Amino acid sequence: MANQANAPAATPAQQRDLSAHVARIGKQDKIATGILTAIVGFVLLLLAAIIVYILARGGGIALTPGFLTNPSTDDELRPKTWTR
C-alpha cells in the first residue's frame, strides 16, 4: 500500500482510459448477466414443462384411492406368481 501512495498521479488521458475501461467492464457484466439469466430461465421453463407433463399424464391415476391399495393393472409389472 505504501508504494501506491508514492506513485505518480495518473494523467487526465490515463484517467479517461481507466473510466472507459471500467464502463466497458460494467457493460460486459450486464450483457453476460442477461445471457446467463436467459439460459437459467429457459432451463427452469423446460423443467417446469417436464413436471407439468408428468403430473398431467399420471395425476388422474395417482390421485385415486385405489392407487396404493389395489394390485397393479399392468401385466408386465405384475410378478408371474400373482393371480387376478
Question: Would you kindly provide a written description of the structure presented here, covering whatever features stand out?
Answer:
By secondary structure, the protein is mainly α. 71% of the residues lie in helices and 0% in strands. The chain has helices spanning 2-6, 12-62, 66-69. It starts with a helix and ends in a 15-residue tail after the last helix. The model has no long low-confidence stretch (mean pLDDT 81).
Topology at a glance:
Layout: H1 2-6, H2 12-62, H3 66-69
Short description:
By secondary structure, the chain is mainly alpha-helical. It contains three helices and no strands.
SS-derived structural category: mainly alpha
The overall pLDDT average reads 81
**Number of beta strands:** 0
Rg result: 31 Å
- In percent terms, what proportion of residues is strand? under 5%
The CA-CA distance between the termini, in Å, is: 84 Å
